[in-house]
Amino acid sequence: MGVVSAAMRFGGINLVNDAWLNNTWSEVLALGAYAFLILYFIKASMKVK
Fold this sequence. Notes:
Elements lengths: L1 H9 L7 H4 L2 H22 L4
């Protein structure tokens, strides 16, 4: 995905929404998603098979 992103930037295609990046709620949402992934991985790894 990094190569695709670099090629798009090189080609002049920018899909990044600067207003969203400067918004505080984007950080809160990202932190919530990260915490959810951590909890999911902890629960899945502690599951007894």
